[in-house]
């Protein structure tokens, strides 16, 4: 079953700000739910909470990946 497309918000400058669900991040990183929530809990992956829903901006996921690549390269 395909996951739904990410939610899209627009920043002040008119840039699209896509928000991903935890299952979408799980699929992109090929990690389990607990691992993704551990990244969120420890602040390694930024997120926002809307009511009871947790959403991860795509730029936060990209920043996380770049940071991990830089750490591994060092």
In short, what is this structure?
It comes from Streptomyces albidoflavus. By secondary structure, the protein is an alpha+beta fold.
Write structural notes for this entry.
Residues 19-66 form the Helix-turn-helix domain. The chain has helices at 22-29, 33-41, 58-73, and strands at 7-10, 16-20, 48-50, 53-57. With 74 residues, the chain is α+β, with helices and mostly antiparallel strands. It has one domain: Arc Repressor Mutant, subunit A. The protein has a 4-stranded antiparallel sheet. A hairpin with a 5-residue loop joins β1 (7-10) and β2. α1 (22-29) crosses α2. The radius of gyration is 13 Å and the shape is globular.
What shape does the CA trace take?
Answer: globular
Number of helices: 3
Helical proportion, percent range = 40-55%
Largest sheet: 4 strands, antiparallel
- The CATH class: Mainly Alpha
**Structurally, how many domains make up the residues?**
1
Q: Briefly note the CATH topology name.
A: Arc Repressor Mutant, subunit A
Distance from first to last alpha carbon:
38 Å
Secondary structure: number of strands: 4
What series of H and E elements makes up the topology?
A: EEHHEEH
Question: Unreliable segments (pLDDT under 50, ≥5 consecutive)?
Answer: none
Which structural category fits the helices and strands?
A: alpha+beta
The share of residues in extended strands comes to: 15-25%
Mean pLDDT: 88
Protein name: Helix-turn-helix domain-containing protein
Domain Helix-turn-helix: 19-66
Pfam family, one: HTH_17
Organism: Streptomyces albidoflavus
């Amino acid at each position: 079953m395909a996951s739904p497309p990410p939610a899209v918000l627009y920043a002040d400058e008119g840039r699209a700000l896509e928000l991903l669900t935890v299952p979408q991040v799980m699929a992109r990183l090929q990690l389990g739910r607990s691992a993704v929530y551990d990244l969120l809990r420890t602040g390694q992956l930024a997120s926002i909470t809307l009511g009871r829903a947790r959403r991860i901006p795509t730029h936060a996921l990209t920043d996380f990946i770049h940071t991990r690549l830089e750490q591994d390269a060092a």
